[in-house]
Structure formats: structure tokens, C-alpha cells
Amino acid sequence: MNKVEKVSIGKCAFSLDEKAYAAIKDYLDSLNLYYSKMDSGKEILEGIEERMAELLLEKTGNEVNVVSSDVAKEVIEILGRPEVIEEGTPESDAPKYNPEGKKRLYRDPSNKILGGVCSGLAAYFNTDTVLIRVLFIVLTLLPGVLTWGHGSSIFPLLYIIAWIAMPKADTLRKQCEMRGQSLGIADIESQYKDGSAFVKDDYSDFWKVAGRICGIFVGIVLLMMGISGLVAGGLAAFGSTAIFHLDSQFVMNTLQEIFESFGSSYYGFNASISPLVRVLLVVFGSLIYFLPCIGLIYAGIHLIFNLKSPSWRPGLVVFILWLLSIVALFVMLIIAASSVAAFKSTVTAFIPFLF
To answer: Which of 65, 130, 186, 328 could form a disulfide with 60 if both were Cys (CB 3.0 to 4.6 A apart)?
Structure first.
């Protein structure tokens, strides 16, 4: 009759025979001695115990079976020993849990903005997560931009479907399969050191998820509005040559209509205005139009990626520059109007327009 020890490994209860208990105890003691000197040693040990529990459950099945010494040695060989890391044993010589390097598609909760779909795809295809996210946003916004806001994209719906269909990599084993790793102790150590180890879901609460979805939706709308505004303004500017020619058709035609509506001499104004004032009128007028578009784009990106606002507050800076542009344009108009006899009627025309 063999002695049986009941222990808890990775928050799971196991029954070990005497030799298996001694082997696993010696192994865990050696790991504790090795990792106790590291800052993240406690977390690494917890990850190794969790992985050991998964392997023991695989070997013994769901039934309550006694773990034999052979199973214990097999699990220890799969995980590897600390001295293998210290000696720098090549990875090809280490025991493999996933020797063929096969990957499975999971959502990655450790590197997510919403559901971890894009980060999971990036891990599966071994590419940069940012690239997948940018590609997804471009494909989402492209139909609306090309059709001036009348088109819609199917990609948000595909994201939701993928979120439902793709399982979440909520264990170390799934994290291993997602990246095609062997997940021995060296892999567990590297995951905790580079911060890619599994992090608990921050959006388990329904309302937090709903709020995040609404924020992303509003961000996409703002981003589309800003990009559409920039594209429309750019086409108008290049089409009318308002930026590169001193006799800006857009600005001058607008001034002509205002002056003539008040019985003023536009042609006297046009003849007397200096080239520098004309350029400044175009510059400040363009800033008044384009700065809100830039602000919308910034706000959209901020909401989509849930970014933390930097200390210099770029949104506030854009708003202040916009106000200063309005004041500067008003000053330029006063300077331009002072060159004609109808100065009083011109100022009277612009004061109610601006305020």
C-alpha cells in the first residue's frame, strides 16, 4: 500500500503518491529558491503552478485519480528546470509542449482596447497589433470617406461576430497556443517579464463594456467628420488655389459680396490691399476652418484608443489657436478695411457677423 498526499497546486486539489509528492515538492522548492531573488518571482511561481495544474489535469483526466511518479516526472520535464535557463540550453534541446508550433486563434485580453480581437489576430499572424488596428479603422472609415458620409462599412459587425466567436486566451495554456510557444518555465518567465502574461478582464461589468463601445462609436463618428472636413477643405483650397495665390478667389469673392451688399467700393478695397494682408487673410481663414477638423480627429482617436491626455492638453491648444485665429482674422479685416473710404460701414458689417 502506497502513501498518498493531498495537495493544492495552482488552486486545484490533487492526490499524489509518495514518490510523485517528493518529486514535485523538490521541483517547486528549487523554483522557489531560484525565483525568490527576482522582483516578479512570486507571480512567475504562481504562473508555473497554474501551468503544472493544467498539465496534471490533462494527464489524469477529469476524474479523481492519484498522480503517479511517472506522470509527475513527465510534467516536470515538460516545464523544464531552472538550471536549463542558467546554462542557456538551446530552445531546440528543451522539452516542448507544442513541438510543431501550431497556433490557435484567440482573443488576447492582455493587450486589448475593447475585446482583444485585433491583438489576437496580430499574435496569430505574428505581426504588430497597431498595424492590425490601423488597418481595421481604415477599412471601417474608407466607405464613409469615399461616399462623403453616405456609405457604411461591414467591419464593425465583423468585429462583433469575431468577438463572440473567438475564445478568450484566459489561461497560460491558451496564451501559449495563441503565440505558438512551448510554455515551459522559460516561456512563463518571459511572459511575466515582458508584461504579456494574462491580465484579468477589466471590462467584466456590462455597463463598462457598453460605455466603452459607445465611446468607440462616438470616436469613429468624430474621426470620420474630421477626415471628411479636411478632405473637403483641401479639395476646395487646391481647386480655388486659395493658398498658393495672393489673389485668393474664395476670400476675395466673399469680401466682394459683403462690401457690395453695404454699398462699399470693393474695387477700391481690392486695389489698395497689400499682398501681405491678403496672405494673412487666407492663412487665418484657413486655420478657422481646418483647426476644428484637426480637433475632431484628435478627439476621435482619443476615444477609440482610450488614450490618456498628455500634460500639455493638445485639445485645449487647438481650441486656443482657433480663438486666436478668429481674433487675428478680425484684426486683418480691420486693417484691410482701413485702406478704403468705407471703413465705418465695413466694421459695422463684420461686428454682428462675428459676434
So the answer is: 65
Which residues 6+ apart lie within 8 Å of 5 measured at CB?
Answer: 15, 16, 17, 18, 21
β-strand pairing of 4-9 with 12-17: antiparallel
Q: 12, 53 in Cβ contact below 8 A?
A: yes
What residue spans define the domains of the chain?
Answer: 4-93, 225-354
Q: State the alpha helices, DSSP H only, in the chain.
A: 18-35, 41-60, 69-79, 82-87, 117-124, 129-146, 155-165, 172-179, 185-193, 206-240, 249-261, 266-272, 275-304, 314-337, 343-354
- Per DSSP, the residues of 284-350 read HHHHHHHHHHHHHHHHHHHHHTTPPPPTT-HHHHHHHHHHHHHHHHHHHHHHHHTTSTTHHHHHHHH
Rounded to an integer, what distance in angstroms lies between the CA atom of residue 253 and that of residue 249? 6
Q: What is the pTM of this model?
A: 0.42
DSSP state of 111: G
Residue 113 identity (one-letter amino acid): I
Terminal C-alpha separation, the chain: 96
pLDDT tens, residue by residue, 87-143: 544 444 444 444 445 788 999 888 888 788 999 999 888 899 989 988 988 888 887
Look up residue 234 and give its three cell numbers. 483641401
